[in-house]
Records
---
Amino acid sequence: MIRIVLTGGGTGGHLFPLVAVARKIVELARTGDYGEAEIYYLGPGLFLESSLEREEINFHYTVLITGKWRRYVSFKNFIDLFKISIGFIQALWKVWKIMPDVIFSKGGYGSVATVLAGWLYQIPTILHESDSAPGFANRLLAPFATFIAVSFNEAAQYFPSNKTYFTGEAIRDAFFAPPKPEKEHALLHLTTKKPIILILGGSQGAQKINNIILDILPNLLEMVEVIHQTGDENNNSVFNESRVVLEGVTGAELISYHPVNFLVEPEYVAAMHSADIVISRSGAGSIFEIAASGRASILIPITDSPNDHARRNAYIFKDDGRAEIIEEANLTPNLMLSVIASILNNPEKKKKMEQRARAFATPEAAKLIAQALLNLILR
């Protein structure tokens, strides 16, 4: 029995690559000479714990108390110092109790305590950076990592060259599978023959994207069928506002709008496969899922991301015509409708976006990381 600890932040952007790697670890361990793999997660409050409960692997998780250091004057820093201290003590105890063979960290402030505890116990650690410009936590933890993997080549310059490798982003296998239109459309209750637009704001939703979609919704539904992931916090308000916006709309237009708080994996994969255009923030996970699915996309980078990584991710992906970008400062109803129409009304452009997006994908990333973790156990 081998034991592997996963750690990272509590959002979908951290959780889902951990799931992708965990699945590959189990798969490789069963076909190799490693025996069964026991997987543990240590970190902040999990995003969608039910996602992990559905995993058909030997999976255990412990929620640690975590604090975040803000690089500005805030009373919360004082409070979080105590949280950080308590979380580190928790991590020391849990890592000692588990005594894993190796640790895999996706970064974020929630991973710091576990990685440092592993370093003190001399447990080898692989650190993964998803974004094109690393966050504070990963830059802090880099000296304590055995190896560092990056999703974007541009991120390698921030880490020691002798232990940094390009792997790409770990994406769940289902995104690379061929679409099954009839089955996936039925799963999503899609009802028309119109083009389909999938609107995402990350796992927690994006209010500005939600607002602009509501502004253009009647016009949009004349052209397309819409799957709208609103985020848990915004779902009720978006649903209620959409009823007001669509008052008087009947027939095919009314049934062409599908708001949902969160798309769990089968529905999310089906929506990504079905979409003619994906409208999304530009987190690394979203970008690489779009690439894996080979979709045309419109990216709207968040304006206040650390190190401006969201804009950097977006413009790297946009290169060679893989996507369109609308800056938040320029986000207006007319511009959004115009950019959507410019893709839908130009089949050749849409096809090139899909082909070039697919070429950006890294289908072997999860396997490469999983194999590297297993290699560390045997060395």
---
Amino acid sequence: EKAILQALAELLDSFEGLVTYNGKTFDVPLLETRYALARLKSPFARLMHLDALHPSRRLWRLRLESCKLTDLESAVLGIEREGDVAGSEIPGIYFDYLRSGDARGLQPVFYHNALDIMTLAAVTVELARAMGDASTLNSPVDLFSLSRMFEFAGSREQSVETCQRALSGGLPEEIEARALHQLALQYKRQRQ
């Protein structure tokens, strides 16, 4: 394990940032623990880290039941996976490998991980596209979520404009009330 951790640290030397999906609360802390146990310096402290889970939830949670990566793949990207192993089966496959030493059973796991990486890249592009140009969003609910993200980031003008577009697109009653409240607070701050 120590050699693998050293190899990962060397690989990360040439990068300035890291993009993950739930990496801030799972992957990176797990790896940092492994570095500490191996008495090696963790390479993650110096890296910028975008955990795409959090902005994905902010943008799509009001519209979608789940923001799991595979659910975003289907609902946002319009892609359905074929021939993939369920993520819940991966630990069992890995433990089978540890017991048997036969790595051939790991192939579906590598395929699953490759699909996750491609989906993560595509979701990150969709997030950047939405932040850069709200007109790329078709759902008024997503527009309202984006307006909240703009407000949180301090981009009040963009927040007001995006919230108005969401309201004019037609929101469900409960979300419409929240959007009107948010808009009223922003107008109040502007003394309008």
